[in-house]
Predict the structure.
Amino acid sequence: MAFYEETQSKKSLDIKIWAKMLPFFKPYRWLLLSIVLLMLGSAGIDVIFPLFQRYAVDRFIMEGSLSQLGFFIAFYAALVLIQTGIVIVFSRQAMSVEMQVGRDLKRASFVHLQKLSLSFYNVNSVGYLLARVMSDTGRIGSMIAWGLVDILWALAYVVGVFISMFLLNGKLALLIAVVVPLIAILTVFFQNKLLNNNRRIRKMNSRISGAYNEGIVGAKTSKTLVIEEKNLREFQKESKEMYQTMLHGYKLSAIYIPSILFFSSIATALVLARGGYLVMNQALQFGTFSAFISYAVGIFEPIQQLARTFSNVIATQANIERVSGLLEKPEEITDTPEVIEKYGDSFHPKKENWEPIKGDIEFEDVSFKYPDGNEYVLEHFNLKIPAGTNVAIVGETGAGKSTLVNLACRFFEPTSGRVLIDGRDYRERSQLWLHSNIGYVLQNPHLFSGTLRENIRYGNLEATDEDIERVAKSVSADTVVANLENGYDSDVGEGGDCLSTGEKQLVSFARAVLADPRIFVLDEATSSIDTQTEQLIQNAIGNLLKNRTSFLIAHRLSTIRQADLILVVKDGRIVEQGTHMELMKKRGAYFELYSKQFAEEAAMQVLR
Amino acid sequence: MIQQKFPRVGLLLRFSKGKIHYFVIAFIASMFGTVFDFLTPQVIRITVDSVIGDKPFSLPAFFAEKVDLNAVRELFRTNLLWCAGFILLFSILSGLCTYIRITINAKGAEGMIRRMRDALYSHIQKLPFRWHVRHQTGDIIQRCTMDVDLIRNFIANQFLDIIRTIFLIVFALSIMFTMNVKMSLTALVFIPIIIAYSGIFYAKIGKKFKVADEAEGELSAGVQENLTGVRVVRAFGREKYEIDRFDEKNNRFSNLWIKLGYVLGSYWGIGDLITGLQILTIIALGTVETVHGNITLGEFLVFISYNTTLIWPIRGLGRILSEMSKTGVSLSRINYIFQAEEERDNPDDITPPLTEDIVFEHVSYTYEGAKPVLKNIDFTIRKGSTFAILGGTGSGKSTLMHLLNRLYDLPDGCGRITIGGVDIRHIRRDWLRGNIGMVLQEPFLFSKTIRENIAVCCPEASEEDIRRMARVACVDRSILNFANGYDTIVGERGVTLSGGQKQRVAIARMLMQKAPIMIFDDSLSAVDTETDSQIRRALQDNLGDSTVILISHRITTLMQADQILVMENGQIEEMGTHEQLVKQDGIYKKIYDIQMNQQDKLLTEKEGE
């Protein structure tokens, strides 16, 4: 679980930022227009309602007659019905716009993420990206739909009420108008403070979640160090800060709400004093007077709503900036137009033009540094790997063993120099062509939630059930199946959590073999796997490597020994290369590594 | 049902102890606020009827006796600002009540929640390790955050809202009934309809919300999986397939909400319809009553105003009531955690010196629902000696250590462990653990600076001391190589400590404990052989009189120990000094041969094949 503190922009309204969302609003412009019209209608009706009261007072009560009351009721009821209809329609449409804009934004972000290079993923955590795809887009969608509804209705209502008031009595209307700017300023002032407070609360919330997380994950350590009390004291500091932040927020509301109501009662008071005076002097009708009081009481909620929504609109700019920042992130590895012309892109491959692959790989004068790094990790590196060669890459954890694999798979491209596949620069072919010919097994194999069968089929979407079962058998993945209640149709759980690491590895072998790749990449598991599975895995690896060019990020002696070529990596650089025997004779880095591993494995074997 | 709800209420009462007065004050303030709010329309009524109009003042007799009403009326008539003044006065008083209500209620509610958070944290820290192993972190965190927040919302907002609304209804109706019974009854009839309408709606739509939430969860999980497995996706060239799967979930989620929007829209619309019809009925009826002279014009206006004030809280009430069941569920989820029993020392547990012999007497142990891991283990660790344990995965060696520092307690009849003759079950846990330093194979570092991590047991430690221990653990130089040195925050983006570095920081941290008993549980496994021996040499010079227990697979790590225990399948296989064990033809000898002669063997091995 990850907890992020998000940066927020504190800018004022910036049209340029909103303009970036234009392509996403555009398909729904008619829907949006209909919302605009409906809101104008709805606000208009809301302006009319107090006039009924006026009519009732002046026409019936003051005149003491009830004639045409039925007509009055019918007309009023008709308006209520129309209003009901408008509410039903506009809320459907607003929801529909919210969800569709959100959906389109989610899709655009997701699709773009599928194209961004892996170096992007190295510096951005999954939690961070997930928040961009899921919550930012959702907020933008809802702001576009409901923000529009709120602003339009409130604006139209306020304008409508003022028009109505000025038509009824201009001087009295002016009295109310005096209070409006005060309320608006007050609201903007407090809204900003409240928004800031909300941000702090969100931050505190993620800190508290983080604290619980550490308290739970680190429980064993805390117990052995006897620091429970210290942890608690530190947590209490956080929870106290949370408490104070919350209280501060409440205090702001506690001042804000009564102040607004006070200003609003100033308006009511003014209308009462002035209007009452006019009524006494017969300069104003009773009904108009009562309608004015209704307006004076009713106008302040919409004004607050306007100011509040406006602050929210500005706050949403931060979400837009984050999403558009993601969408504008350039793809670092792209196929040239010529390549796409010939081989198609990742979504529309032209498989008929794909050349078959043999599996020769050559690094030709390759220099490389990671986009986020300063130092070259490879300099003028040359290596020829004929098809069918098994290359083992060994070294300490974190020594940079995956660099070569990343280059060979074109997850990264050389900073200078070329990588040749079957004698041609791989940039002359499409990424999908290469990736379709690579089988990849990760150290902690990543399975997708779904059934076992679906996971294996990931290697080749056209494979039949027979293919899948045959391949599973060839790498002993059928032993995993045998342990499961529903066989191949058993659910593997989220991330394959229902299976052990060893089992996941066997399944991912099957997945890789099903793709029948010419190039095979294996990042061997370091974690201990039970003896039986370990043996199965070793056999499976043996089967896999036959006739395939392979890169093995190896930890097990047996895997290392059977490699045709061993590369030893230290501090990000290749320090030794050769066969097992050659390197042992050197008594260098490889010898040291091998001896250590040997000691451990030997002890483990005897102790079994 | 009542029994089921009781522990939940009990939980709330437990945390509200000493804070009830906040809620009482908030409620009183809220009551007065409502009364003042209701006075404003009365001012308007009096102004309309008796100041502008010519009806006699209808004030409670109490006022009528003391004040010369005619004089007042004249005063008001000549200067209507007096009426306006009353409106402002009541507004200020009501505002004051609102201020008190919000701040005081927040103090009570947030104070309760703060207590609950602290109590949860403290409780979780004190729950036995057994409990932690059995529960999933994500689930517990969810209870501590989301569920606590739902409860917070209930106590801080909904609870008072419910009481206020009920008070409002009773108060408003009782005034309204004094004005006109017929109209009040009409207004009253609508109230249960409105509450029931929204209550039933939210109870019904709850399921749909749940389905939509689940769809969102699925979508989110799908995206997360895709992002986590990005390498697999790329390696198999499955971008299109992934996007198709994403589209399916994304569309399902969006469509569910659009459909929900339809339902919600109808609900809001019909809600407005009922409300609008209620207001219409009151206005029409009020008009008739006024024309018939049953109420005054002022009363008519007051009545409409009260009626409108009532409508909105009533519409909210239905929703809150239907959401209360959620709070109930959250309360029982929190209660579940609190019901687990904390580790608790007996009052007569003691704190004896631990610089004594450690004796395992006929110790057997079985984890719940598993095969026995330890079978009748019997051995002694002499004080001040170095004791080594060699054993494979699952041989029970780590369990021995977990029992020694009481992460697990030996049940009765399974033997006992003593230090200086005292059964460790009679020693206070904090004392025992504080005096046993333990480094785990996969150590956990807190997300603080490296300095704070090393000094976590003794925050007052000097820089000198911290650096010295880091040097003993051979990690000082690696730390200085980080851009921020000792101020590097563990786990922050970009900075990752390798397994070996983590182990060494954990060793330094343990050394700071200066404990008389130190356990190294396979804690040099990720360190290369050379650093391993370097650390051991440095330890030798710094250990003093401590009793040291080493667990490892490396003979070189173990061989200098005063006593070596070889474990297999939960039993003692061999025990003795290195010299003794090498003479026996057992497991130890075998491993020793392989590991010591490996260099020659390694060279001949391949050629022999």
In short: Residues 228-280 of chain A form the longest helix (53 residues). DSSP finds 22 helices and ten strands in chain A.
